[in-house]
Amino acid sequence: MLFRVTRNCPWNKCLFCHIYKGRRFERRSLEELLSDIDAIYAISEELKALSWRIGEGGEITREVLAYVFNRPFDECVRMVALWLHFGGKTVFLQDANSLVLKAETLAKVLFYLRQKFPQIERITSYARSRTIAKTKSVEDLRLLKEAGLTRLHLGLESGSDLVLQYMRKGVTASQHIEAGRKVMEAGIELSEYVMPGLGGKKWWREHAVRTAEVLNQINPHFIRLRTLMVLPEMPLWKKVEDGDFELQSEEEVVREIRLFIEHLEANSYLISDHILNLLGELEGKLPEEKEKLLKIIDGFLSLPKDEKMNFCLGRRLGLYERLDDMKDPVKWKQVEELRLQLEREYPGGVEGAVFKLKERFL
Ligand code: SF4
Question: In what helix (H) or strand (E) does residue 293 lie, and over which residues does it extend?
Fold first, then answer.
């Protein structure tokens, strides 16, 4: 269940982000949040009563879902029905930085939520490192953990102060470290998001090495990759157009990720689960599986140029998931024919077409 404790992003200045641009940030009051929980609870009781009425014994079965979705129930009822059908065990707090709320306020909300829905096992939220570094103590975070907060996703993006400053991330590398360590000390699961490509052609080495160094000092449970993609709605687009920021090619980003992993010494689980990442199979426990990860990368880098382009295109078309998928002769031929045609006819060539295809993923 998605549960909005604030609206939009209190920072909203990062050059590479378009999600909340033009939207005003708002904190939701404690009263409003508690009454939302009451409303969800009332809906869940109505759904159980409905289930009894149609002979489903109070469970939110497929039949109850079909009943709700085939009649003009509103979106909230449908969302709660789906949530309960799948066990009602996980909640995601929205929007960009729930920890901007006072720890006591948020804890009251989480305690109440779990009192009403004791089956909840996991509550996750996005948060900003700067907010945690500057406004939350380890005790605050422990209180939130006790209230039910199980995992935080932090947008680290980069460990390079140069890159962070240029991208107007509003946080320094040392604040990232401070925040990450506090979260770990409080016993909350920590997932740090890294953005390959964010250093551009100019700072890619600095970006890769410093980011690894920062993560080595945090030792988060998870490191998640989410490669940079620039859209016209993002302030970074203008910088790209002006030539102030030069985007890397797909291959250059893969080389950067190799350098990043080489320098990683954290005891973390690395995940490449975003569709914008070229190599989705880069997943493993560090440091044990570092060699395995580097081997996957080298597998791509050692391909002849045309084969690399074949993979990039096939991956962006959704035909390949892993490098080995290129061994399927039917898929390979399908992609190769298109690659040759694009090379002849598409104005930006295959790279231009791949960039266009990636726009669909955001
Ligand atoms: S803090 Fe997060 S949501 Fe806010 S502008 Fe930056 S990237 Fe976007």
Answer: helix 290-301
Residue with tokens 């506090």: 182
Best substitution site from 4, 6, 7, 9 to test ligand 1's pocket, by max atoms within 8 Å of Cβ? 9
145, containing H or E segment: helix 138-147
Say yes or no to pLDDT of 361 above 90: no
Distance 320 CA to ligand 1 centre (A): 31
Spatial separation of the C-alpha atoms in residues 160 and 147, rounded to whole Å: 34
Strand segments, DSSP code E, in the chain are 2-4, 6-7, 26-27, 90-94, 122-127, 149-157, 189-194, 222-225, 269-271, 284-285
Look at residue 362 in the predicted model and tell me its pLDDT: 81
pLDDT-derived band at 360 (thresholds 50, 70, 90) equals: confident
Query: What mean pLDDT comes out for the span 195-224?
Result: 98
Under DSSP, is residue 174 helix (H, G, I), strand (E, B) or coil? Answer: helix
The continuous run of DSSP H or E covering 164 comes out as: helix 161-166
Residue 359 has pLDDT above 90, yes or no: no
Nearest Cα residue to atom 2 of ligand 1: 96
Evaluate if residue 347 carries a pLDDT over 90: no
pLDDT of residue 120: 98
Best residue among 7, 19, 176 to mutate for probing ligand 1's pocket (most ligand atoms within 8 Å of CB) is 19
Cis peptide before 232 (omega within 30 of 0): no
Lowest mean pLDDT among 78-82, 218-222, 316-320, 352-356: 352-356
Q: How far is CA 164 from CA 62, 63, 269, 314, 323, in A?
A: 47, 50, 24, 32, 32
Q: What gap in Å lies between CA 149 and CA 132, rounded to an integer?
A: 14
- The whole-number pLDDT of residue 62 equals 97
* Cα–Cα dist 282/263, whole Å: 16
Q: Using a 6 Å cutoff on CB, does residue 9 contact ligand 1?
A: yes
pTM of the predicted model, to two decimals?
0.94
Phi, psi dihedrals of residue 188, rounded to the nearest 5°: -90, 140
In sequence order, what are the residues at sequence separation of 6 or more whose Cβ sits closer than 8 angstroms to the Cβ of residue 340? Answer: none
Say how many C-beta atoms besides its own lie within 10 A of residue 133's C-beta: 19
205 in Cβ contact with 248 (< 8 Å): no
